[in-house]
Amino acid sequence: MGVWLTIGDFKTSMTILSNTAYSAVNDYTFAVIPLFVLMGVFTTMSGTSTEIYNAFHALLRKIRGGLAMATVGASAVFATITGVSVASASVFSKVAIDPMTRLHYDKKMALGSVAGSSVLGMLIPPSLMFIVYGMIAQESVGKLFIAGMIPGIVLAVTYCVGIYVMATLKPELVGGKKATEGQQGWSKENIKIFLKPLGAGVLVVVMLGGLYGGWFTPTEAGAVGAFGAFLLVLSKRKLTIKKLKEILIETGYTSASVLLLLITAMMYSRMLGVTGVLAELNTFIEKLSVSPVILIIIFLLIIILLGTILDSVSILLITMPMMLPFVHSIGFDPILFGVLVVIAAEIGLLTPPFGLVVYSMKSALGDKASIEEIFIGAFPFILMMIFVIGLILLFPQIATWLPSFMEV
């Protein structure tokens, strides 16, 4: 509609749309989307999420707030397999909330630890957000994946430190003395629990190691990951013909929706160019006369505000075609910007009124928790995310160091 109203020729605008729809997704690289989605669905079916959670619980059981930290650690590892925050939130709502409740954790603390840690799924590779950003920005998806590793670990560690501080200042948040009752030393059973998710660990090491080492392209890493996850399900004897059909259909639905969004993003970018909106924005920003860092902060604040009403992928599709030309013009590293943007957009998953992760948790928990309780519980984790954004702005090497060694 925008192109048609600008050029005044309906036939030409439809030709641009059809060409865009074809060229936007007619690329070998886009095979990475269904492959990583397939890997995530296979892994969820295998029950690996519960095994990872139990392993972290066994490891951190003697630390005050250890169960909440186990949720963070398990989410971080699970993120390397799924890459979708909403999926992580749904899974760990069912896995982690009840054990924390049994240990008399404050309800909001339990809900917040699940909500906050779920966003690691979009930061730690493979990440659907990085794939979308890479396609819009025309940047290496492999470099973006690797760029997200250290910031993801930093955010996970920040969460754990934050949980420990809150648990120390207010022990009742983690059950007080009751939280440490009945804890025993290492036993053979604990060792078995710790070793159970070893298969998933090997899969992660092979996939990300191959990607970082240059042995795989992101698409090939997705294929290796999907096949490895398939073997995990087979080894646990949880796959049937009926379930395989459901998995493939779910993968198709998810992939189709993402690819459709990418087509619309490309058409949106062309509309911005044809209408001259970018030129007007360029003139406006030049008149602001602000430093590059201030401009980046303004962009991040816009993304955080949009997060209150839109989902994170839509935010990228709307804002990046307008913001990226200015990011390039001021000489700011687009890989670094991508990491910052993903964290800022993920904050929106936890903020009212939209908060997609919060609604996903509510759907999984039913009457066990209210929307308000989840939003309140997530608030400290939002502050921690903002802290990590500031840390990356001060020390950009957190995001740029690992990609600097890559040739992909």
Automatic annotation (TrEMBL):
Record's bilayer topology term: Multi-pass membrane protein
One Pfam family linked to the record: DctM
Domain of life: Bacteria
Chief location of this protein within or outside the cell: membrane
UniProt key word tRNA processing: no
Family annotation (InterPro entries): DctM, TRAP_DctM
Domain TRAP C4-dicarboxylate transport system permease DctM subunit: 13-398
Transmembrane feature ranges: 28-46, 67-89, 109-132, 144-167, 215-235, 247-268, 288-318, 330-354, 374-395
Compartment(s) of residence: Cell inner membrane
Family matches, as NCBIfam families: dctM (TIGR00786)
Protein name: Tripartite ATP-independent transporter DctM subunit
Lineage: Bacteria, Bacillati, Bacillota, Bacilli, Bacillales
